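Okay, is this right?
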Amino acid sequence: MTDTFKAFVIAKGAEGQAQSASWHEMGLSELMDGDVTVRVRHTTMNYKDALAITGTSPVVRRFPMVPGIDLAGEVIASDSAEFAVGDEVILNGWGVGETHLGGYAGIARIRSEWLLHKPEGLTGAQCMAIGTAGYTAALCVLRLQALGASPAGGPVLVTGASGGVGSFAVALLAALGFEVHASTGKRSEGAYLKALGASQILDRAEFSEKGRPLGKERFAAAVDSVGGQTLANVLSVTRYGGAVAACGLAQGYDLPTTVMPFILRNVTLAGVDSVMADKAHRRAAWTLLTERLDLGHLQQITAEFRPDEVEETARALLAGKIRGRMVMNID
């Protein structure tokens, strides 16, 4: 095992100064506590990573910090009975990249309870192409199914459809036989979303401005990664007995709605958290992905970026210039 490795480090600036972020040489002694040491092969650029790297939002709660809330690699040292040297593993969330040094490094030391064995049938790179976005989308789909959503119930709406979570939600729901309506602010992405399985493309402007407390019943269920006014409008047009899985706040964390969809239409608003989900839910999500996700769609959703493009990619993601998923090969 090498004693040093490259890591992308975010350092807190002096009082009144911006943070700094760049690649540095790190040593094993600088890693945090954990019973499994992983040689990282691939990681991703998530919205949360982009916020941390640019300093746009106070995502990082400990400095210095290595971002990267997802990682895939192989075990090179272990004090855990669950994982042996040579095992291929993946990680999503658990505060990694926020409070615990993350995946933008050649080596990461992780707690075994945060890790999963790499799903059979997927490479590490494919797992990172899926990443937290795809895994969160799978959790949302499973939550809707648990609440009774089925293809026979009617169309399902996906907001933020050309983003990471939205793209996977469209693909998974379509693969399960649902009629999927995809809402996006990028009309140019219509062909892309239809290739993933969307039957109709809707302009996000339909949902982004203030609407009525109750609108015409349109959707049997929805996956929302936008929040704010969009989520309020989605709730107002959800059919009687329908459910909305909410997992994001790209438009905002406020929810300017009323109780009317809940008490007059029996609508369920189901929050979906991917960061602290237990292993049973994680395994179920990854099983759904391995069984239902078309790997051809995965290739359409994914692009790569280089280690020297980290900051550029983060800015592009926050500016809405990136479709789908971005994967980085740490090697």
Observations:
- The chain has a mean pLDDT of 95.
- The first helix runs from residue 47 to 54.
